[in-house]
């Protein structure tokens, strides 16, 4: 199956393998920007899923209700981009050690199956009602994107002096995916609903999910009849380019140019993607729950732009030639980033317990925060800041549970 807990000086997470910075010093073979940004993504997922009140919270700390993006909507696409980025380095490292393309493909398949199974188990927790099991989810989407992206990169790669990604094959596949989904949404005439629908129940993705998986295996977000799913099959397909954009970023970084030129190239591509997304928006709405083409482009551009700035900030000084000192304030992000899959599992289990148990007089939906305490806090602190504080406490709790693993260099490894 998998090496579940691995004790070493390096770590891997949900994304492909790359050694992580530990003990205050980052290896010169490491990109601190990847570790820190990945950790911030996971910590951000914890923050936005633990508000004291789901209504009285800052708009940017929640997913958009429907059309239009929020800061929260950018977290998961950034994680996918980092997974694609790490994939290239993982394949190159393993290839250099003599692993064949076939063994790498088997590794991709095994990892995807494990991620899928783990995601289904976490979805079933705590009731384990398999009859109503929610099929889709975060880990399931990562598994799907990693499987397709990994096999594409391996199947089209060139192995000369070193492992080389076939850029044109990757770009062509990204265009094919986005154009194909657009054409399907635009021209497929679904009975009753028709074509070119972007509402909750009538969009093509929801129709496909209901037909293949049945309503009972979709998300509770789809209402009492479970008519749609924010992580459905069609949206998984359009999120593959987010991961492949990370592959292209890794190719650009690996070429070995100056940090300034590398960052500039990433920012130019990021700006172009964002610009195209905004131009398309009046015609093709930016919608995270449907993961429309315009959202793919926007989130990909934002993720790439943020990564470029982190790359200049954290890796620019060393330029890969000398060790980079890890500052104390970067450590919390590294705690999350070096054990991302374990952090995700812990916070998902906490969410399950969070909804299962409730203190007497607890304020809904913050089941562990008594109503009297919530009311008192709201007298002193703005209710929106109470929700923020509650989320920050959750971030601290998960980090506290991850800290012993980080200190002992124990990492959940697939």
TrEMBL record:
Keywords from the named record: Acyltransferase, Membrane, Transferase, Transmembrane, Transmembrane helix
Superkingdom classification of source: Bacteria
Pfam families: HGSNAT_cat (PF07786)
Residue intervals passing through the bilayer: 36-54, 74-92, 104-125, 131-153, 165-185, 232-252, 264-283, 295-314, 334-357, 387-406
Entry-linked InterPro entries: HGSNAT_cat (IPR012429)
Ranges for domain Heparan-alpha-glucosaminide N-acetyltransferase catalytic: 30-184
GO molecular function, one term: acyltransferase activity
UniProt-recorded name of the protein: Putative acyltransferase
Organism field: Granulicella aggregans
Upper lineage: Bacteria, Pseudomonadati, Acidobacteriota, Terriglobia, Terriglobales
